[in-house]
């Protein structure tokens, strides 16, 4: 008996999804919950697991096609079931949008290769060409693409390592470190190159324009002393690492933000044409930069978590965002958003509000700087870990005084260094 595979609804407001890639091909065996296809929607890019074990008998929707939720996109024949002779003939729809995750070179399996190695080496022709020209073994690189596949950024970042230039590949590029922006490849005689926008990039563009058209954006900036936060981070980071959590500045910032949201609930609100909508929950979205766009998974009920719980939740959401394992619930229900341009070295940023929220916090880089420290015994100059935080707020609802009071509360909590660890 054939089992239908349907386009899932990846969020309350999602009405359609685009098939980006078929991970399995017609005639291949598939286990229940094994990744079957990759889709892209307004909210999230995700790998969709198989609803049952069996054989992929029919593929009804081609890569690049967009269909309504609950549409049948494929069928799986149970054990012993019949398999369709071939996949459907390609329809004339628009070509599949480019995607940073390299597609396999072919649908055939390579005998003698392990699954992990097969995933890494089945990269795009461009990646394999760069590897061949630089005498690099792709299998030695830890890819940041789906299932560990090596992307163009991965291979270029790897080649630029000093030890790679000196001899055979011996190191790996950490998947979470930002890779350098590669130069565009142009054919001989070309002065421009057209690349269609991906589904995610189109949706990001639409949401950014909508937000600017909807909200009256104003930004305020506060310089904050992170020295006490840094002391706590150094004190606890090894213990947290042993418990499976990487301790960054973000959990401390989230806890400080929650404290400020309690005092100024209007910053945790949203609004419609006639009403201010206050939220009881503190659901904090943490923007995650991906090779192919930006996504904002949400730490639900952040007020219920200590620093360790926040560190684990943030790390888990970030990793699942990068590997396309987020569920619809992971990107829904946010009441306030934090974005961190400082991780790439930025001094500060002025982010765009994540609708329908009314404020967003931008985190700059934490830098050691000489500053004037005021004490009862007088003023003196000291080296402190400083950071600029910015709050972009919707001036239709939030006045400048309230925004500054909110930021003053965030500042006081961070500088006092009094956290629930």
Describe what this molecule looks like in 3D.
26% of the residues lie in helices and 24% in strands. It is α+β, with helices and mostly antiparallel strands and 421 residues long. Strands 9, 12, 15, 16, 17, 18 and 19 form a seven-stranded mixed β-sheet that branches. The model is unreliable at 81-122 and 162-179 (pLDDT under 50).
What does the secondary structure layout of this molecule look like, with pairings?
Blueprint: E1 2-6, E2 16-22, E3 29-30, E4 35-40, E5 45-49, E6 54-59, E7 66-68, E8 72-77, H1 115-121, H2 125-133, H3 152-159, H4 162-166, H5 199-214, E9 217-225, H6 227-242, H7 250-263, E10 270-271, E11 276-277, E12 284-286, E13 288-290, E14 293-295, E15 298-299, H8 307-322, E16 336-339, E17 359-363, E18 367-375, E19 378-394, H9 400-416
Parallel strand pairs: 12-16, 16-17
Antiparallel strand pairs: 1-8, 2-4, 2-7, 3-6, 4-5, 6-8, 9-19, 10-11, 12-15, 13-14, 17-19, 18-19
Helix pairs in contact: 7-8, 7-9
Helix content: 25-40%
How much beta, percentage-wise?
A: 15-25%
- Biggest sheet details: 7 strands, mixed
- Total number of helical segments? 9
Shape: globular
What's the end-to-end separation, in Å?
Answer: 53 Å
Query: Would you identify the regions where 5 or more consecutive residues have pLDDT less than 50?
Result: 81-122, 162-179
What sequence of helices (H) and strands (E) makes up the elements?
A: EEEEEEEEHHHHHEHHEEEEEEHEEEEH
Oligomeric grouping of the chains: single chain
Structural class: alpha+beta
Radius of gyration in whole Å, from Cα? 24 Å
Mean pLDDT: 81
Question: What's the number of extended β-strand segments?
Answer: 19
């Amino acid at each position: 008996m054939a089992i239908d595979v349907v386009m899932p609804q990846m969020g309350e407001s999602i009405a359609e999804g685009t098939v980006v890639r078929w991970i399995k091909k017609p005639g291949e065996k598939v286990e229940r919950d094994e990744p079957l296809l990759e889709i892209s929607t307004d909210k999230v890019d995700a790998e969709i697991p198989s609803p049952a074990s069996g054989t992929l008998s029919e593929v009804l929707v081609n890569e690049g096609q967009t269909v309504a939720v609950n549409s049948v996109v494929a069928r799986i024949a149970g054990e012993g079931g019949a398999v369709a002779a071939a996949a459907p003939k390609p329809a004339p729809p628009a070509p599949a949008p480019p995607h940073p995750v390299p597609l396999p070179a072919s649908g055939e399996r390579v005998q003698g290769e392990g699954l992990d190695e097969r995933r890494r080496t089945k990269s795009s022709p461009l990646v394999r060409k760069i590897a061949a020209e630089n005498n690099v073994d792709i299998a030695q690189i830890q890819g940041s693409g789906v299932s560990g596949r090596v992307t163009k950024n991965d291979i270029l970042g790897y080649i630029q390592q000093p030890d790679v230039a000196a001899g055979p590949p011996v190191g790996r590029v950490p998947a979470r470190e930002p890779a350098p922006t590669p130069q565009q490849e142009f054919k001989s005689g070309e002065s421009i190159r057209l690349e269609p926008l991906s589904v995610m990039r189109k949706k990001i563009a639409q949401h950014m324009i909508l937000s600017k058209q909807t909200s009256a954006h104003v930004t305020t900036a506060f310089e904050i002393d992170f020295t006490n936060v840094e002391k706590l981070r150094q004190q606890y980071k090894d213990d947290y690492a042993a418990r499976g959590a990487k301790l960054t500045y973000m959990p401390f910032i989230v806890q400080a933000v929650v404290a400020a949201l309690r005092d100024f609930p209007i910053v945790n609100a949203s609004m419609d044409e006639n009403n201010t909508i206050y939220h009881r929950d503190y659901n904090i979205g943490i923007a995650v930069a991906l090779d192919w766009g930006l996504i904002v998974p949400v730490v639900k009920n952040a007020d219920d978590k200590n620093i360790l719980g926040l560190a684990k939740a943030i790390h888990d959401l970030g990793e699942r965002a990068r590997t396309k394992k987020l569920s619809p619930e992971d990107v829904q229900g946010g009441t306030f958003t934090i974005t961190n341009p400082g991780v790439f070295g930025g001094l500060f940023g002025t982010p765009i509000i994540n609708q329908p929220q009314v404020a967003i916090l931008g985190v700059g880089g934490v830098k050691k700087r000489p500053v004037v420290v005021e004490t009862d015994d007088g003023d003196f100059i000291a080296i402190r870990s400083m950071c600029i935080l910015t709050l972009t707020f919707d001036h239709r609802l939030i006045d400048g005084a309230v925004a500054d009071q909110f930021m003053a509360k965030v500042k006081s909590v961070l500088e006092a260094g009094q956290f629930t660890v």
